Amino acid sequence: MRVGILTSGGDCPGLNAVIRGAVLKGTTVYDQEFVGFLDGWRGLVEGDVMELDRPAVRGLSHEGGTMLGTSRFGPYQGPNGGAARIAEVLERLGIDAVIAIGGEGTATAAQRLYDDGIRIVGVPKTIDNDLDQTDYTFGFDTAVEIATEAIDRLRTTGNSHRRCMVLEVMGRDAGWIALHSGTAGGAHAILIPEHPETIEQVCAWVCSVRDRGRAPMVVVAEGFRLPEMAEGYSTKGRDNLDRPRLGGISEVLAPMIEQHTGIETRATVLGYVQRGGVPTAFDRVLATRLGMAVTDLVAQGQWGNMVALHGTDIVPVHFDEALADHKKVPLERYLEMRVMFG
User: Fold this and answer.
1) Is residue 286 a contact partner of residue 18, using CB atoms and an 8 Å limit?
2) The overall pTM is greater than 0.90
3) Which residues are catalytic?
4) Taking CA atoms, which of 35, 72, 196, 261 is between 20 and 30 Å from 211?
5) Hey, do 2-138+279-322 and 140-275 end up sharing a CATH topology, with the first three levels equal?
6) What class does CATH assign to 140-275?
7) Binding residue positions for Mg(2+)
8) CATH placement of domain 2-138+279-322
9) What are the pLDDT digits (tens) for 127-169?
10) Sheet of 120-124, strand order
11) What is the pLDDT of residues 25-62, one digit of tens each?
12) Which residues are annotated as a binding site for substrate?
């Protein structure tokens, strides 16, 4: 069987480890052959591929990014898009099945292609860890590690100047990166999209820290909003999915905190640093296991499914189940940490 692999949507550490795991197990156990579609769905639509054999994936597990490239291009986009045209491309290239590695948008597109008759399976990917039906997604642990290191570094400069430091991390609809990195870094307040807080409450926590002779550290997810805000803060227009391009809420909060408390306050937006660099050991192992497991789905013909982590086991989950709900931070998880704020 000849299988095509693509990586779509935002990049994240661990994508190359998935590709390596799939190629090594697929070729060894199932005698599968692999090609990679370049730049996500665009490569599938246009038939732009590269051969993937054992030498091609040698040493990939520790490398960040994706050797195949990625894009926000959709499989139904453009004059050559759509399931019928894609089926023609697959037949012309002698490709029997597709493995799509990506987040919610990729899974949604894969579900539609499956419904339209394309033999496709998936691997979940997002640093936000917000895909339902999988306990963790690769890339999340790396993003948390990077954010935690940033907290540690900001704390030293904050302590030196007795400033309040506000660190903004990624998290449009789910605050998992902020919650985990803020907890690991000992933040004095963690602000996430799921559970808005008033500026008065944030400043009360900041003042409590100052009154103990400490320099306050606040971690905020990019999608956080104050109760009076209708949506997340954005000044950068809208993305290809017609969502506001978030970013900059820390730069809104910092002057408000300084005005309310009199404490000199500085904001740092961590941004795409969270997506870059080499994956952590945890993400390398998880990504490798997911890549190996997805070849089982192909061999068994379990089309329309993705692989997911349940506890320590890798299990198949149908796209419909995976897309049913976003995995957001539950109130009890937030309240568990909130008692330590201030």
Assistant:
1) no
2) yes
3) 128
4) 196
5) yes
6) alpha beta
7) 104
8) 3.40.50.450
9) 999 988 899 999 999 999 999 999 999 999 999 999 999 999 9
10) 49-52, 33-37, 2-7, 97-102, 120-124, 305-310, 313-318
11) 999 999 999 999 999 999 999 999 999 999 999 988 89
12) 126-128, 163, 170-172, 222, 266, 272-275
